[in-house]
Amino acid sequence: MRPPLLRILLVASSASVHFKPDPIGDLVFNGVASDVLRSSFYNGLQADAAFRLNPAHTLRTGFVVSGESAQVTTQDTLLPLDLMTGAPIDAPFGLVDSTSKLGWLMGVYLQDEFKLTSNLTLNLGIRFDQMYQYVDAN
After folding, report:
1. Residues 4, 49: contact at Cβ < 8 Å?
2. What is the pLDDT of residue 30?
């Protein structure tokens, strides 16, 4: 039996999108000017191992664990209007909405590979994933 093959992978990434309005044009035309910032930071660990029992039989197993932090901040400037005439009735005012969420994803798998012939391989396996984010699901 050969020694197991092992692969470990660390992953990290970040992304952000920032929309900046035309404060005067958007406010006059739409009645609202929104400054929106969305950002995300992702960190994860994955490991896989393969155990070659003989030339025709290989067992594989692995797991993944990752966390992602997402944040959304919206700064709105609003122009209050008279419902009947559509004319401004007061000075613009601001609203701020900020939210964040930390989500987790975990998974594990086991696979059994049989090489039946040189052109035919049978794979049997089981996998389980669990997610804790906006919903908890598996």
Report:
1. yes
2. 83
